[in-house]
Write a structure and sequence with these properties.
Helix content: 25-40%
Number of strands: 7
Order of helices and strands: HHEHEEEHEHEE
Strand content: 15-25%
Largest sheet: 7 strands, mixed
Shape: globular
Radius of gyration: 15 Å
Structural class: alpha/beta
Number of domains: 1
């Protein structure tokens, strides 16, 4: 297994090489430790699926292109990933890219209902309207596990809409944020329920 900083360097290095950055105010939320934890969880999930001799694992990244980029370079061949993203610069990922505007949450070109084992969402705005619409997308795509990163103030609404609970792990960001962010999941996950001291 790679050292944590090596895995993180891969994700951010790709962004630099491709001259792509997630725009602040839309998607410039490059959560460093959060990204690594999500990758570790997805990797563990994929390994478990391989042990069950299931052919494919599907992961949908809703408005979180940095996670998608990391998955591309570390995932096994049996894993399919899709990026739902508003920023059309990410169309360089061709068939994996689906243009996504949360204002039309079910306009999902070529995506089938309940077709992803894991759906990870990072709503671009901290508002009830945005979370409600993102939740429609997540519910449509998900067949099982949901991971959500949003403001702590959205906890009650997130639980109501997606049946998720807050995790112990607290996402960090390279810039200081005015609002506390938290990670939520609809299942028990060891990796996202470790504190910094436990990790």
């Amino acid at each position: 297994m790679w050292h944590e900083r090596d895995e993180t360097a891969v994700a951010f290095g790709i962004c630099v090489l491709l001259h792509i950055s997630e725009k602040w105010g839309t998607q410039m939320m490059t959560y460093q430790s959060f990204l690594l934890k999500l990758w570790q969880h997805c990797k563990s999930f994929m390994e478990a699926k391989k042990q069950m001799i299931l052919v494919k694992t599907g992961i949908a990244c809703v408005a979180c292109p940095t996670l998608y980029q990391k998955l591309q370079h570390l995932k096994p061949a049996t894993c399919t990933t899709v990026l739902l993203e508003f920023d059309k610069r990410f169309a360089i990922y061709k068939e994996d890219f689906v243009f996504y505007d949360y204002n039309t949450p079910l306009k999902l070109t070529n995506l089938q209902e309940n077709s992803f084992d894991v759906v990870v969402a990072d709503p671009p705005y901290l508002s009830e309207e945005c979370l409600r619409k993102i939740a429609q997308t997540v519910q449509f795509l998900s067949s099982d596990k949901v991971i959500l990163c949003t403001g702590a103030v959205m906890e009650d609404l997130a639980r109501e809409l997606l049946g998720v609970s807050v995790c112990l792990f607290i996402p960090s960001h390279s810039r200081s944020l005015a609002n506390a962010f938290r990670c939520f999941a609809n299942f028990k996950t060891h990796l996202l329920n470790q504190t910094v001291a436990d990790a």
